[in-house]
Amino acid sequence: MSWRNRDGGQNSRRLENVRVVDVREGRIEEGPVLVEEGCIARVGGSPGGREDVIDLGGLYLLPGLINCHAHLAMVFPFQEWDEHEAPARSALRAYRRGWDALRAGITTIRTVSEIHRVDIALRAMIEEGVVEGPRIFSGGCGISVTGGHGAGFGVLVADGEDAFRHQARAELAAGADHLKIFLTGGIAHQAERFSDPQMTREEVAAVVGVARSRGTYVTAHAGGGRALREALDVGLTCCEHGYLLDDEDISAMVARDCVLVPTLAVTRSADWMEKHRFPRWMIEKSLEAAEAHMESVRRAAAAGVRLIVGTDLPPGDSDRGVNVTVREIEYLVEAGLTHLEALRGATIYAAQLMSAEDRIGVVEQGREADLIAVGSNPLEDVRALRDIRCVIQGGRIVRWEVQ
Fold it and tell me: Which residue of 114, 209, 268, 369 has the smallest Cβ count within 10 Å?
């Protein structure tokens, strides 16, 4: 049910009887929230005016969640993947996954390698109002070496710094917001190890140079080790996974202000993997890495590395009855973050990574009215996010379960 259907298209609405979660200051504010033309016009102040009034029944209102590691078109299990499938099939799968994410309260996603660049096309269709879905910050196609991690899954392949430079320029010209590379092995290939280098320092530097020339950044699939440290030396901004980070890796990340998207769900979602018919060896490889993965993230967090929420699982999916994006926030608490810091990892910190803090990630005047409402205080316990009762994007109600 949308406000437009309720009121004949009025452009000004006031959310009343609501407790606003301030993720910047870590406090709860009482008072109405005024929404005009899809943006937050005012937080707090005295009620009144001629706006359409929406009573949220005392719910807690906070920014819509952001998932910073998504593959919308990926096929599960991986062995059924066909990188030559028709682009229309990939696009339809991505659209459905995006819609599922939005309905679940993930109002923004960052994609990190999509076949056929379907994320760029879907982003355009959503922005044009042709279809509904989350805000998308697109990575386009990731770039890997011949036979490297990601190869065979619709990524671009390059060997040598000139080839990587060319592919990086092509992705940005196609409309990518950021660039994704693959530094090391991972879980998807049986023979790979998490710290095995797959790119040279010069190849990474070429991609970073292209990104900087266009005012954007590079994120990398990386388990840890020398490959990660060399990438940090030449300007890597963001690390995905961090399965086996040692003290030297973590110190380098802190020194260079590199953020980590740990995707802890990857190594602790056996039920989800079984449901999607993953081979037994891959499930076992994932679970065997779980303890070391969590310990790496705990030490990184304790050292001051900023953690950002991302799942590597479809952001609107559930694992053991809980949305995987919400579950990832809970895992960050297990890794030692406060409930507030974990929540920031899915809101304000995620927005800052994408240079979108002036648009999303907080409930403040001038920001997009991307909001969710829950029944209890998430600053006290992020498990409150398991009970999302209202999802709003751009001032329009996407899902409404308020009594």
Answer: 209
Between CA 346 and CA 378 the distance in angstroms is 12
Domains of the chain: 3-64+361-400 (2.30.40.10), 65-353 (3.20.20.140)
Reference 144, options 209, 70, 68, 221; nearest CA is 221
pLDDT by residue (tens digit) across 305-340? Answer: 999 999 999 999 999 999 999 999 999 999 999 999
User: What are the backbone dihedrals phi and psi of residue 307, each rounded to the nearest 5 degrees, phi first?
Assistant: -105, 135
**CA–CA dist 351, 68 (Å, integer):** 9
93, 232, 266, 315, 319 from 322: Cα distances, Å: 21, 35, 15, 11, 5
Look-up: residue for tokens 């790979």?
Answer: 192
Q: What is the DSSP letter of 196?
A: -
Q: Compute the mean pLDDT over every residue in the chain, rounded to the nearest whole number.
A: 94
Let me know: does 223 contact 185? Beta carbons within 8 Å. yes
Angle of helix 324-334 relative to helix 290-303, nearest 10 degrees, comes to 60
The C-alpha atoms of residue 17 and residue 6 are separated, in whole angstroms, by 19
Residue 144's alpha-carbon distances to 149, 184, 220, 223, 322, in angstroms, are 7, 10, 10, 15, 33
Give the strand pairing for 65-70 and 106-111: parallel
- Structure-token pair, residue 344: 């920031």
- What's at 264, amino acid-wise? L
In 55-180, which residue ranges form alpha helices assigned H by DSSP? 87-103, 118-127, 161-174
Q: For the chain, what is the total number of helices (H) and then of strands (E)? A: 13, 19
pTM: 0.96
What are the phi and psi torsion angles at 15 (to 5°)? -85, 120
Residue 351 contacts residue 361 (beta carbons within 8 Å) = yes
Strands 39-43 and 33-36, sheet pairing:
antiparallel
Percent of the chain surpassing pLDDT 70? 96
Whole-number Å distance between alpha carbons of 296 and 286 = 15
Tokens 């479809």 map to which residue?
A: 314
- Beta strands 259-261 and 238-241 are parallel
Q: What is the pLDDT of residues 43-94, one digit of tens each?
A: 987 666 667 889 999 999 999 999 999 999 999 999 998 989 999 999 999 9
Tokens of 293: 């993965």
| pLDDT tens-digit readout, 333-367 | 999 999 999 999 999 999 999 999 999 999 999 99
Euclidean distance between CA atoms 121 and 45, whole angstroms: 41
